[in-house]
User: Fold Extracellular small neutral protease from Streptomyces phaeolivaceus.
Amino acid sequence: MHVRTLTGGLTAALLVSLSLTAGQAVAAPAATADASLAARVFTYDASGSAEFRSAVDRGAAIWNESVDAVELRPATTGQRANIRVLADNGWPRALPTTLGNGTVYIGRQAVDQGYDTIRISAHELGHILGLPDRKPGPCSSLMSGSTAGTACTNPYPNAAEKAEVEDNFGGLLVERAPAGRPEMIVD
Ligand SMILES: [Zn+2]
Assistant:
């Protein structure tokens, strides 16, 4: 894609995304006043998610419908995304780096056992948004993951999970970066 074909809005989103990717960069002075109102935009690249791509898009859309503080937006071609989503043959898992950043694996092992692909996608994205597993748990909980069983197809976070994400992204990201090395969250 030629840069000149980008709209102003996309260019702005790209700049925001890059400043977030660069890390715990302090928000630009001009944006500070709006920091509490505007959703934090994080881009995701689902180009490596193979047959799960539409499920990943749906999982991201569910988060966008569910919370105000953060928005997950598909990365444009060639754009370095905050979140990479990959398909593989293992168990679904997430490797959060900093809040809103990391890698998600949509593992075929769980899909082959009958677990719902949209619930898996929303669950793993939930880890990137700072949520831990809540196991065992009921189907009404997104972060109960596989413990809710294969019959559970609920891809929506419950009220507590939504509130936790709102809280995670409601303050300055710089204060929320986890210490130490990133750890893989399996399931
Ligand atoms: Zn999990």
User: Anything to note?
Assistant: Residues 3-30+41-173 form a domain with the Collagenase (Catalytic Domain) fold (CATH 3.40.390.10). The pocket of zinc ion is lined by residues 123, 127, 133, 145, 185, 187 (CB under 6 Å). The chain has one domain: 3-30+41-173.
